[in-house]
């Protein structure tokens, strides 16, 4: 067996007839009995459940869908001569023994002839790709943005462990995350097909057979959710509503994070805090990798290297730096170690089919694994973790090795539910339930606070509990380029809070790569520099003053725009829009179907980073300064070029030259960017004064600024307000109106408008909640504040 292997379509049995079976339709033939039921789940979404008679247990074990949507309104089939018809919220669904056809108002999706089959426990659905010119989502993937012509294996693995010699390539498959959601672009319209099945599945999107889209599940029950468009935005929002949107993180979690495998002594952490201060680079968290532990025992500290972890972490926090510790799932199998003894006594560890404790071989040596599918195991885990977080004054949890990684010991022998449930049922959900239990620990520790968790593995729905990083990448340009489509597709797949290891994890980075990586990702939802103990150090100051200055510029840019990023997270929580988006999220142009080297942050900013190094692509030298060049597709309308301080007209491709310390960045006409202009002191940021940077060329500008306490979970009960901002620039006058509403005290934030790119503007008329306010007009005529920051530092 090798990854990506499929079942030949001719090996599937096909049905010959069907009949009504309760409220479902049963397709049957030699070797085959497949029950298909249909429900309307919510507006624009319905579910087809496929129960293969050869699968002994017809329970759906996936935890992907929010409980509210697990039951829908049953659509009773009407049987006609050779067709069963379901009438649903998205349109008509027609089923024949070997064919399925979904006719939505705007698009049609149908299988090829003989498109439905079973082979033992496996299920085949083979759709025709007629008219399909794009495919997105598919969770976390290497490769290009558009997955048409690609294949994807949905099995969580420890990538570097299984691709030991090829991890540095950019085409590995599978990855750490399994989210079987495909968003198809049919002509100009979109529809989503989410195959909810926690078992291993594969998709082949026209690779093996052009024109055919294979979904093959190797076991379990498949719930096919059809998500109506017609826009990408509607599909994405519906999927997010179905599987859950990320809760709001604390503001500090959106800052810059510094991590490295190999930091192993308290004096290194103190030195890091000092070095960041000396380098004048803000940092919001320092991360403890596995070396903080006492011989890799969970919930312990090596007391020689860290005599007083709580004291150290409080000291860091006084400087605005939070502490995050890694927490692996594996428990050292060591009688006398209390965590092991108590888990054994409570029977919370995974077992083999015959009931032995399942043993793997990872960092602690012989290791056992909590069975997070058991509520009792989750409660046991949460209690330990909550105590650990409290006792050590740790603010965030980093969940690693939860693919799960078991070393040389095969994973398949790991069973669940006291040996009763086969490995495949929970393999892809192992990290998910670990995250659920770990989030519960954070909530126990601080009932009103906002947890911050980061995980390596995940499945559909895991965004409800944690952020995701894209695992062990390598320090090379291919992996920098891959980071964009990978995070964009992950964002479309419900995981809005994600990002790669900036600088690259494996192998040695270099000055230029490190700078470009910081620039490319400084507006990503998650922004962490991380590297392996075997690689060269890559903290911002490791490559000399010019490199430091460029990196500092990118990091400061992020901090200046943290209020905007925070607004994007709030919008995600409210509506399901991802924080970073491919251009085709908002703009319709044939080229954008493949555009994976530039992206939007919210709907206001367009980022087109430099993704190649010196000598690898277009470049030039002008007046002694080196520039890297690239093409930038600028959608129609006016854009403000934040490097050059000029309006440029879109609807065309620009050829752009960026010096080493420049990130090509554009603000949309009509955008308002909330900007933090106060002092930069790590995670300390009082957002009681916000600048509203106004970009009005032809368009009036508009923005909904959400007001909340940024710390507690009261927003979940509706304790938040809106400041509705509208602005217009006409000749020499700027008119700005701010109207507050909602369940939040008025005028807790002082807003200052800043007008861009209008040298002729002289007057400001500002009204706040219906009252005229005197405020000096501020304009930026040449360059943007951030560029000044980036270049002059
Ligand atoms: O076997 O904890 O992906 O981020 O630094 C390697 C050590 C285990 C893998 C994670 C990586 C982390 C490393 N871990």
From TrEMBL:
Protein family according to the UniProt entry: Belongs to the glycosyl hydrolase 31 family.
EC number(s) given by UniProt = 3.2.1.20
Q: Answer yes or no on keyword Ribonucleoprotein.
A: no
InterPro entries for the chain: Gal_mutarotase_sf_dom, GH, Glyco_hydro_31_C, Glyco_hydro_31_N_dom, Glyco_hydro_31_TIM, Glyco_hydro_b
Entry keywords, A to Z: Glycosidase, Hydrolase
Q: Which residues form the Glycoside hydrolase family 31 N-terminal domain?
A: 121-204
Q: What GO molecular functions are on record for this protein?
A: alpha-1,4-glucosidase activity; carbohydrate binding
State the protein's name. Answer: Alpha-glucosidase
* Residue ranges annotated for the Glycoside hydrolase family 31 TIM barrel domain, each copy included: 247-567
Q: Which residues form the Glycosyl hydrolase family 31 C-terminal domain?
A: 576-673
* Domain of life of the organism encoding this protein: Bacteria
A biological process term (GO) from this entry: carbohydrate metabolic process
């Amino acid at each position: 067996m090798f990854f990506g292997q499929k079942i030949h379509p001719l090996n599937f049995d096909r049905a010959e007839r069907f009949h009504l079976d309760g409220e479902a339709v049963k397709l049957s033939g030699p070797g085959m009995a497949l029950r298909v039921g249909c429900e309307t789940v919510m507006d624009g979404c319905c579910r087809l459940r496929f129960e293969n008679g050869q699968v002994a247990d017809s329970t759906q074990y996936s935890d992907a869908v929010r409980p509210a949507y697990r039951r829908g309104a049953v659509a009773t089939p009407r049987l006609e001569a050779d067709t069963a018809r379901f009438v649903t919220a998205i349109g008509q669904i027609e089923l024949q023994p070997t064919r399925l056809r979904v006719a939505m108002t705007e698009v049609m999706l149908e299988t090829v002839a003989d498109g439905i089959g079973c082979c033992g426990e496996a299920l085949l659905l083979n759709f025709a790709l007629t008219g399909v010119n794009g495919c997105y989502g598919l969770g976390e993937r290497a490769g290009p943005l558009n997955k048409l012509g690609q294949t994807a294996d949905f099995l969580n693995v420890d990538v570097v462990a299984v691709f030991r010699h090829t991890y540095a390539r950019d085409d590995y498959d599978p990855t750490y995350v399994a989210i079987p959601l495909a968003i198809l672009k049919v002509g100009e319209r979109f529809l989503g097909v989410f195959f909810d099945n926690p078992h291993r599945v594969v998709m082949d999107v026209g690779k093996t057979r052009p024109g055919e889209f294979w979904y093959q599940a190797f076991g379990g029950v498949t719930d096919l959710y059809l998500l109506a468009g017609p826009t990408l935005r509607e599909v994405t929002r519906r999927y997010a509503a179905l599987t859950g949107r990320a809760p709001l993180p604390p503001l500090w979690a959106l800052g810059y994070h510094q991590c490295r495998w190999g930091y192993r002594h308290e004096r290194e952490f103190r030195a890091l805090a000092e070095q960041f201060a000396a380098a004048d680079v803000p940092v919001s968290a320092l991360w403890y990798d596995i070396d903080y532990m006492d011989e890799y025992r969970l919930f312990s500290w090596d007391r020689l290297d860290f005599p007083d972890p709580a004291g150290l972490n409080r000291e860091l926090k006084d400087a605005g730096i939070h502490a995050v510790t890694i927490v692996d799932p594996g428990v050292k199998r060591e009688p006398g170690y209390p965590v092991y003894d108590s888990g054994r006594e409570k029977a919370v560890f995974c077992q083999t089919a015959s009931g032995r404790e399942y043993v793997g071989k990872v960092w602690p040596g012989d290791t056992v694994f909590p069975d997070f599918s058991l509520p009792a195991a989750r409660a046991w885990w949460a209690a330990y973790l909550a105590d650990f977080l409290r006792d050590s004054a740790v603010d965030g949890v980093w969940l690693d090795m939860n693919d799960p990684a078991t070393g040389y010991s095969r994973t398949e022998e790991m069973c669940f539910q006291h040996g009763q449930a086969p490995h495949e049922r929970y393999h892809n959900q192992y990290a998910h339930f670990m995250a659920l239990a770990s989030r519960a620990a954070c909530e126990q520790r601080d009932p009103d606070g906002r947890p911050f968790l980061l995980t390596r593995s995940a499945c559909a729905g895991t965004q409800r509990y944690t952020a995701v990083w894209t695992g062990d990448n390598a320090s090379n340009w291919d992996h920098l380029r891959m980071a964009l489509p990978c995070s964009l597709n992950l964002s479309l797949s419900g995981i809005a809070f994600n990002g790669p290891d900036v600088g690259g994890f494996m192998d040695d980075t270099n000055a230029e790569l490190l700078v470009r990586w910081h620039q490319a990702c400084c507006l990503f939802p998650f922004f962490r520099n991380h590297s392996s103990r075997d690689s060269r150090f890559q903290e911002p100051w490791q490559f000399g003053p010019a490199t430091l200055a460029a990196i500092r510029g990118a990091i400061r840019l992020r901090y200046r725009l943290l209020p905007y990023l925070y607004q994007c997270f709030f919008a995600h929580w409210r509506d399901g829009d991802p924080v970073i988006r491919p251009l085709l999220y908002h703009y319709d142009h044939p080229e954008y179907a493949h555009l994976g080297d530039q992206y939007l942050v919210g709907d206001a900013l367009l980022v087109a980073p430099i993704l190649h190094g010196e000598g690898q692509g277009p470049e030039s030298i002008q007046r002694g300064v080196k520039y890297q060049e690239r093409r930038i597709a600028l959608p129609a309308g006016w854009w403000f070029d934040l490097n050059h301080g000029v309006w440029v007209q879109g609807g065309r491709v620009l050829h752009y030259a960026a010096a080493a310390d420049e990130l090509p960045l554009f603000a949309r006409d009509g955008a308002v960017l909330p900007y933090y202009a106060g002092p930069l002191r790590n995670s300390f940021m009082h957002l009681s004064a916000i600048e509203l940077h106004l970009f009005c060329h032809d368009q009036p500008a508009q923005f909904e600024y959400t007001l909340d306490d940024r710390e507690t979970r009261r927003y979940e009960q509706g304790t938040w307000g809106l400041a509705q901002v509208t602005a217009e620039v006409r000749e020499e006058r700027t008119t700005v109106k701010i109207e507050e509403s909602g369940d939040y005290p008025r005028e807790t934030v002082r807003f200052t408008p800043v007008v861009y790119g209008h040298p002729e503007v002289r007057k400001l008329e500002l009204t706040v909640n219906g009252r005229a306010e005197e405020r000096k007009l501020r304009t930026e005529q040449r360059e943007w504040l951030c560029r000044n920051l980036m270049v002059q530092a």
